């Protein structure tokens, strides 16, 4: 049998038992005879609905923490904690992920999500909790020394979190706290390609051992994982093509980034000559570019020991190694190559990204000065004038 009492501030509360739990819910009404009668009626209705099995805790006490516990979704999950659900989710879904994705998601679970939410019932995870967790991530050290975790990295962690909660909410019918939860804004780094002259300056200053590696990078636009994982069996000198079929990521060979990343790249003369020189060095192995011991290249080590020191030696502004890919794209577009061909070389499914990212490097696409039309108009006026000039007609008659 439930009871009604009054707190020290004079407001009343209800005490009752529901699903084996003793519940106390405070009200904002004062302890008066009239209010006592009203709350007694409410308590009788609650106990009647409990006995009939139709009691909806959230309808009576929508702001109560217990309303979340007794929500339909929570009942279905039987109080399943996040750690238990996340482990099951990972095991059931990992077969659909590339090995590199499995490793990244496993790392996100072990390093961030499980330590924070492991023992928390899934249906009790709220939006304020998620915001607190995200704020805690921003206090952690990032991958670069002296920097905090970036917004992009935080968003990646929250994406894994979202995937888990989306599936849990769909399976068990509770309101997903990720609904209308926005990602942090990420400022995209500026495109800083090298000019053709700067490319040759870089190649003049890079160590001879790595010269041909960077020739291939600059003049194919290959991603780091693609060139580091390039094998001789995918270099076709007869048809002058480089076949992108495998990449090297997280110290293992994996399939390319996307379906369109699987492609054939046309060899220019410079690339062909660089690969022929490289074949004399590593042709007996399976990888095109290796360390001295024949092992795959480490992109962080290459950036630290070769890329940045060479930029400094050549007097060029520092920029990330990925700019070699941007350099290829901008050089090809600026020279007038067909954007569709450039997109295929880069492994893009359409030219949309090219026009979005590299628009200012495409001749005639973004020029706003009207010079192209002026040139056409002047040529047309000159032609029309020549056709209508009486002197030309006289000269024509004289020739006759």
CATH class of the largest domain: Mainly Alpha
Per CATH, the superfamily of the largest domain is: Intergrase catalytic core
The mean pLDDT is 86
Poorly predicted sequence stretches spanning 5 or more consecutive residues? none
Can you count the beta strands?
8
| Shape descriptor | elongated
CATH architecture title of the largest domain: Orthogonal Bundle
Record the strand order, biggest sheet. 1-2-3
User: Can you give the helix content as a percent range?
Assistant: 40-55%
N-to-C span: 124 Å
Largest sheet: 3 strands, antiparallel
Count of individual helical segments = 18
SSE string, helices as H and strands as E? EEEHHHHHHHHHHHEEEEEHHHHHHH
Secondary-structure content class: mainly alpha
Cα gyration radius (Å): 34 Å
Question: What name does the CATH topology of the largest domain carry?
Answer: hpI Integrase, Chain A
Beta-strand share of residues? 5-15%
- Count of all domains: 4
Question: Can you put this structure into words, describing what you see?
Answer:
- By secondary structure, the chain is mainly alpha-helical.
- It has 4 domains: 3-66, no CATH class; 82-172, DNA polymerase, domain 1 (Orthogonal Bundle), CATH 1.10.150; 196-361, Intergrase catalytic core (hpI Integrase, Chain A, Orthogonal Bundle), CATH 1.10.443; 367-400.
- Helix content is 53%, strand content 10%.
- It is built from 18 helices and 8 strands.
- A 3-stranded antiparallel β-sheet has the order 1-2-3, covered by helices on one side. The chain has a 3-stranded antiparallel β-sheet with strand order 4-5-8. It has a two-stranded antiparallel sheet with strand order 6-7.
- The longest helix is centred in the middle third of the chain and has 22 residues, at 151-172.
- The chain is elongated.
- The model has no long low-confidence stretch (mean pLDDT 86).
